[in-house]
Amino acid sequence: MREDKMTLLRTLWGTVSSTTPTPTPTPTPTPSAGFSAKVIVDSKWNGGYCNRVQVTNAGTSSGTWAISLPVTGTVNNAWNVTWSQSGSTLKASGVDFNRTLAAGATAEFGFCAAG
């Protein structure tokens, strides 16, 4: 660069370095788990029902699942899951053997409810 241009740049911007700054590395995005649930009606009778729920990890890495589902009535038992109910919402998460799902894997749990 010509000296007169360098002088002008120094005047306008202060000291100018001819070195290129080191770019800040862009972090590599972490793959994520993405869970979906499919509810299957196992049985239904006057005053109650039992459902199975298949939870699938559609993401690109393993992950620990927890889901919320709308339910009718009061859940009175469930299996292969840790659960709680608040109003018409069932919150469910995996237990020791099905808590973490690899990408593409599926876990299944079930529950019965009155109502």
UniProtKB/TrEMBL annotation:
Biological source species: Xanthomonas campestris pv. phaseoli
SUPFAM superfamilies: Carbohydrate-binding domain
Keywords: Glycosidase, Hydrolase
Name used for this protein in its record: Major extracellular endoglucanase
Domain annotation CBM2: ranges: 28-115
Recorded superkingdom: Bacteria
Gene Ontology biological process terms in this record: carbohydrate metabolic process
EC numbers, comma separated: 3.2.1.4
